[in-house]
Design brief:
Blueprint (H helix, E strand, L loop, with lengths): L4 E2 L5 E2 L2 E9 L6 H4 L13 H4 L16 H4 L5 E4 L11 H9 L3 E4 L4 H10 L3 E3 L2 H13 L4 E5 L4 E4 L2 E4 L4 H9 L4 H7 L1 H9 L9
Parallel strand pairs: 3-4, 4-5, 5-6
Antiparallel strand pairs: 1-2, 3-7, 7-8, 8-9
Helix pairs in contact: 4-5
Length: about 210
């Protein structure tokens, strides 16, 4: 689901994301598993979706296996376990997830830098306890077409007839809801204000 609203000043307010789910079980899933280092040589993020969990999704002969990302193609809500995104601080991991189609993540916990990188991409990463996350992963397996809704403002996740309370980092929630997570877009959209401020500074010389 796309952000709920966009402001005229470059803001994209993300208050809710929804879609089908994909369970990615396992604790301490690090960024080298999410995006293998051999693909770091590319100078853009354009092809990162093709490399998401590249090794884990393939057998020794290179053929796709039964990895959840192969079985739940088209899902947009990832459900993960403890310390997801640990290891290297590479931004490529959440970039690959976003470009594959992930709009939100429900998990037990995240590596801090991975979570912050998700915030910078507008991907809500909310947390719940082990039992709650496991039940959601099992529900997805039984209901592959079932919708999961992450309400960032209310701090809830809804699936089937179940509504659960979740936690979300305060800085992430504020940035998403207020539409200030994409700092680059905000700077570009406010270029005229920047220029006006620069023009008013007595110690900055103009081109002429």
């Amino acid at each position: 689901m796309a952000p709920d609203a966009s402001g005229g000043d470059g803001e994209q307010h993300i208050t809710e994301v929804a879609g089908t789910g994909v369970p990615i079980p396992g604790d301490d899933v690090d960024t080298d598993q999410i995006l293998p280092a051999k693909f770091m040589k590319e100078v853009t993020f354009d092809n990162m979706a093709d490399y998401l969990f590249y090794d884990a999704r393939r057998d020794d002969d290179g053929e796709f296996n039964d990895h959840p990302l192969n079985r739940f193609e088209g899902a947009s809500i990832a459900v993960v376990n403890s310390n997801f995104g640990c290891g290297s601080s590479r931004e490529h991991a959440p970039q690959a997830m976003m470009r594959w189609g992930i709009d939100g993540i429900v998990g037990e916990s995240y590596a801090e830098i991975f979570r912050d990188n998700c915030k910078s991409l507008g991907i809500p990463a909310v947390t719940a306890d082990h039992e709650t996350v496991t039940e959601l992963q099992e529900w997805i397996e039984a209901n592959p077409d079932g919708e999961i809704d992450i309400d960032v403002e209310a701090k809830t996740v809804t699936y089937g007839d179940t509504v659960i309370d979740v936690e979300i980092d305060g800085a992430m929630r504020e940035a998403l809801v207020d539409g200030i997570w994409d700092t680059t877009a905000l700077m570009y959209s406010n270029r005229s204000k920047v220029d006006a401020t620069v023009d008013g500074l007595p110690y900055v010389e103009g081109d002429d």
